[in-house]
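agent> fetching stored inputs for the heme C docking request
agent> found them:
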Amino acid sequence: MRHEQIETNSGLLIALTLVVISIGGLVEIVPLFYIEETIEEVEGVRPYTPLELLGKDIYQREGCYLCHSQMIRPFRDEWLRYGHYSLAAESRYDHPFQWGSKRTGPDLARLGGKYSDAWHVQHLTAPRSVVPESIMPNYPWLLENDLDYSDVADRMRALRKVGVPYSATDEGYRANVERHGPELADQLDIAQAEDSLLAQAKSANFDGLAGRITEMEALVAYLQVLGTMVDFSQYDEGYFAEFR
Ligand code: HEC
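agent> prediction call returned; pasting tokens
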């Protein structure tokens, strides 16, 4: 009887529908207000260096996420293929996160260190020259375009606003020295962004080109750090070790 009263009274039906839906909404949304507590601290997870950060921006610009996910789910078939499942903390400094929803190509969450820099340069320039059956597009302009790093400090400032601990103050710098060590703290210092970007590009030379810093350089720096921040050998002893 009550049911009929509700269904024939559209005002009441709408009000009750809203009440029911908002319970579901609250259950999803409320934990996000406590996100700082929801994501646990994991040793090794750090913000991207300026060079890696620009690489991530190129990854987004080129739409790599349309074919590649960056989230290994905790199912056996996933971690046998890709490695340890992803931790929430591993994408805490990704704004926006790159979990993706489509795997035309393989997941890239633990890509870092899997291939050499030279392999990436070759593969991104002409995927079919290393994987003949590949359907991935060519990205030859990454080697042609010089990297525009003039706004890297602004990009870091913007990320600082959403909680990435790039330092802009002495206090922030000291906190980073404590958390990440002096060498990395230098790289996370907004005032030194350009210098540390140039130093990293020069010392690692990700694109193999001397004297030039290309978009390829930044993208490969980013790809090579994916999934490498946490040292899983400390944790792998039990369950995962069995399958290695
Ligand atoms: C149209 C879909 C598509 C797009 C867009 C795409 N890829 Fe791929 N990617 C693939 C496919 C398919 C493979 C598997 C074959 C191969 O290795 O080339 C692949 C493989 C890869 C691999 C090797 C992964 C491994 O573990 O072997 C890397 C690295 C990669 N892609 C990076 C990128 C980057 C960076 C971009 C953006 C600049 C990109 N891809 C854009 C489809 C795509």
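agent> quick read of the result: Residues 2-38 form one domain.
agent> awaiting further instructions
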